[in-house]
Amino acid sequence: GCTFETMFDVQAATELTLEPIEDITISSGDSVLISLVINRDTSALNLIDWFGASSCRKCTEIWLSPELTTNYAVRVVDKSGCEQTISFKIIVDKNNGVYFPNVFMPNKATDDRNQVFRIYGTDELEMVQSLAIYDRWGDLVFRGTNARPEDLVWDGTRSGNILPPAVYIYVARLQFKDGSTGLYKGDVTLIR
To answer: What is the tens place of the pLDDT at every residue in 5-33?
Structure first.
């Protein structure tokens, strides 16, 4: 018998890594492109599994447009069987698309604009469950419930009596088409 000896270096396998994806906030109705950063060429991958997001098994980028705040996970498996999973959240901001005026002028504006205080919103805003308006002493001066945003308005009066110019506080609970609700608080200035 012959024997043969040789020396060689065995390179340690590079660990499969995915760069974390930070939580992302989008406005209701918007989309966002999610891109994976992987330390492997896609040809070295067996599977990319977007849990709850896509059936594409090799996509390193996908567009997401959730209607509600949603948690996602993505699992990547390379051809060596190494596996890595990361998770992230897309937060859907319902506040974008809802607008509360900060000043109104009943009987003072030259046109119909700014004659009343009302809530403005996109098509996603379904109903105003409640709107309460208080004076600076905390007394309730207006209350409306369960109405479409365009139908619930305050004209600067309390029980038919004209209120003085001042800053008033509003508290509104809004319902969106997806069934979610939001509580909004702020102030509005009444000018005469």
So the answer is: 888 787 776 788 899 999 998 877 788 99
Output the six-digit token pair for 141: 């001066």
The answer to whether the CB of 176 falls within 8 A of the CB of 119 is: no
**CA distance linking residue 25 with residue 4, whole number of Å:** 63
d(CA 94, CA 83): 36
Token pair, residue 46, equals 């067996």
What is the C-alpha to C-alpha distance for residues 112 and 118, in angstroms, rounded to an integer?
A: 13
What lies within 8 Å, CB to CB, of 187 at 6+ separation is 102, 167, 168, 169, 170
Per-residue model confidence (pLDDT) at position 94: 66
C-alpha–C-alpha distance, residues 123 and 104, integer Å: 23
**pLDDT of 166-188, one tens digit each?**
999 999 999 988 888 888 899 99
What gap in Å lies between CA 74 and CA 51, rounded to an integer?
A: 6
Measured CA to CA, the distance from residue 122 to residue 126 in angstroms comes to 9
Q: Is 138 helix (H, G, I), strand (E, B) or coil?
A: coil
Q: Are 190 and 168 a contacting pair, CB within 8 Å?
A: yes
Distances (CA, A) of 174 to 9, 149, 158: 67, 9, 23
CA separation for the pair 138, 27 (Å, rounded): 33
For residues 149 and 120, is the Cβ–Cβ distance under 8 A? yes
